[in-house]
């Protein structure tokens, strides 16, 4: 791995300072930026947190993870379509988790309304399946699969460009640069939304539906600005940025059509797609009754939802734990397969990535819970939350398990993955530091479904996030990790 020699250069302060300055200039010039956590969006930006050099990654493992992208997409679509399964699996969680309970309520009411009026559902799936290498076998295990507010497809796709530039600065060879895989994460997402808008307009066949914009419910301004620009430049699709509060005030449903559907309007303008980059944590619902009503109104419409509430529920940690039980994945693939041999291969590939997961309140988990109490460092306890900073480790994990009781039904106990550690130079807020780090690979996929017809389904790029080896969490926006990219070895 010849490129690892660059670290010797980075031990020289003059070389490091020069590279840091170059990285900041490149990131700023190419839009690899974020708004500081405490800054007003209009007042300041800074470079995104980044690793100065790419992380070595096994080529075969990378290719294998990418090859599973569409299989995971089809699996999660089958799960999201199965209302009965979602209700059965998540009702025990909802007893102790109001956030899940609200989602289930929206799902059941809107599904009943669609069934009553024979209206179809339009959805876009943008998933990211996250993995870590597990020592000593170097097997690749899934950390989680994300179904809402999936981040950094935009900024992450630019990190490989930064690394290609910096490798050149450090004297890396052309062969090294060629080992940085291309990353279609931004265009993959943009093209999926563009395909949904075109499908919506074609199905509506009305003047009002032409030039229908997409609504982006915002959180991370600059990561999503690239989506907005891409939609306009590649597909001529306009976008409106709105908060849940603004949707509550401005959104409405048109009269029901003959096909049972109702169009969504925002400020009187018909909308084809609603893309949620917020709404995945309770704190996003500042006025819960108002904001949940807005979310339900969107669900009742014929706009493409990215994602639907069903998809958000399909990404719950409890669902992921249940899918790991014997026979569950097999049943979902059997229900959707047209090619038996392909279905067998898909479910075997998907299952090969599963780490050990247990429902800590269930009798089947008794042995795993006992081991976790004795060796808490070998496990992680996960609530039904996204966004980083929610998992329990070590003493906190042991204390929660020791409490016992029905409230444990809101958690999932998972085997803790032990990834390899490597040295890296991390750049955050203009300051660089060398540290022992570990990395997580995310693989994106997209799916567009119009009623029962899948319009598009494919892989859509990747993401690498790197964090210090002593950090339990890894969210970039949450302040735990940095953006990275792989160099294949």
UniProtKB/TrEMBL annotation:
Query: What's the record's note on cofactor binding?
Result: Binds 1 Mg(2+) ion per subunit.
Query: What is the protein name for this chain?
Result: Glutathione synthetase
Q: Which domain of life is it from?
A: Eukaryota
Keyword line: ATP-binding, Glutathione biosynthesis, Ligase, Magnesium, Metal-binding, Nucleotide-binding
**Which annotated residues bind substrate?**
128, 224, 465
- Give the species this sequence originates from: Prototheca wickerhamii
User: Cellular component per GO?
Assistant: cytosol
The pathway where this protein functions is: Sulfur metabolism; glutathione biosynthesis; glutathione from L-cysteine and L-glutamate: step 2/2
